[in-house]
Amino acid sequence: MATDKKTIKSYDDYALKWQKRKRSGKNIAHKFLEKPAMYKKLPDLKGKSVLCVGCGTGEECEHLKSLDVEKIVGVDISKGLIELAKKSYPDLEFFVMDMENLDFPKNSFDLVYSSLTMHYVEDWTKTLKSIHEVLEDDGVFLFSTHHPVKWGAKTNRSEEKGSFLMGYEKYKDGRCEVFGDYLNTRKIDDIWFNEFNVTYYHRSLSEIIGDILKSGFRITDFIEPKPLVEVSKENENFYKIHDKIPLFMIFELKKESSCQRKTCRRF
Ligand SMILES: C[S@@+](CC[C@H](N)C(=O)[O-])C[C@H]1O[C@@H](n2cnc3c(N)ncnc32)[C@H](O)[C@@H]1O
């Protein structure tokens, strides 16, 4: 299984709270940074078939449906989240499924959309292959994920303060302290909202880009979104920090047609 079992259990147990938090608009990182940037990147979807991977409680599927798609399917590894998605949007199709082993016929979708899910996956090559297979030729895989500059930092979440440090301090007397680790791939155990145990994987950009290029996708865009200025009214510090330090990043990948792939191999 691609995702750590503890994380799946957390999403299952926390499903109702997750849905409430999402709908309350309190998740400002989603509302003022990630969703606006992802939705801005969506191509014209009229009449297209779309797979939403890591769909959670289904809100993004509802949004994609509203863009006149012909077909929208949501999948998530958490049974708890999918149950809530089905209840909330009974006219949409949802399945419990691991993105590492997508169970759809080859070439089924024009777009695979995945928001903030790839960092849970240990082995990107399997997942990218699985997504590549279910996409049509020239289909697009649009995904957002943790930005390694922020999520590889040394983290301290105490009552008094939260700090995320990436860098070093070198003293004239020879002492040296290094904060964070950007270059080394590793599993990170974390606790969100003081109660949500989660495990994700940190990877450098070169590792991510290497896996993407091996998978037969072409990178057609890369975005490091800044927050909308409107967030300042709700949380000034969020704006202050993430106008300078990236939180998430977005990749737009294209599956080259089999003809293009053969041409590539000739050179
Ligand atoms: C941060 S949530 C994002 C949910 C939704 N996309 C959103 O933005 O609100 C990450 C989601 O990825 C799902 N997930 C984690 N690993 C997965 C996997 N291997 N296959 C499918 N879904 C997975 C989790 O269950 C969770 O719903």
Q: How would you briefly describe this protein structure?
A:
The protein is 36% helix and 30% strand.
Provide an overview of this structure.
This protein is an alpha/beta fold and 267 residues long. The protein has a single domain (5-147, 204-266), classed as Vaccinia Virus protein VP39 (Rossmann fold). The chain has helices spanning 5-24, 28-40, 59-65, 79-88, 124-134, 148-151, 205-214, 231-234, 236-242, 258-266; strands spanning 49-53, 71-76, 93-96, 109-115, 135-146, 154-157, 162-165, 167-170, 176-179, 186-192, 196-202, 217-223, 248-255. The longest helix has 20 residues, at 5-24. The two termini are 36 Å apart. Bound molecules: S-adenosylmethionine. S-adenosylmethionine binds next to helix 1 and strand 2.
Q: Which features does this protein show?
A:
267 residues; 30% strand; alpha/beta; two-stranded antiparallel ribbon; 10 helices; Rossmann fold; seven-stranded mixed beta sheet; binds S-adenosylmethionine
Per the CATH scheme, the topology name is Rossmann fold
Helical segment tally? 10
Q: Spell the H/E element sequence.
A: HHEHEHEEHEHEEEEEEHEHHEH
What strand order characterises the main sheet?
3-2-1-4-5-13-12
Distance between the termini: 36 Å
Q: Roughly what fraction of the amino acids lie in strands?
A: 25-35%
Please specify the SSE layout and strand pairing:
Blueprint lengths: L4 H20 L3 H13 L8 E5 L5 H7 L5 E6 L2 H10 L4 E4 L12 E7 L8 H11 E12 L1 H4 L2 E4 L4 E4 L1 E4 L5 E4 L6 E7 L3 E7 L2 H10 L2 E7 L7 H4 L1 H7 L5 E8 L2 H9 L1
The protein binds S-adenosylmethionine.
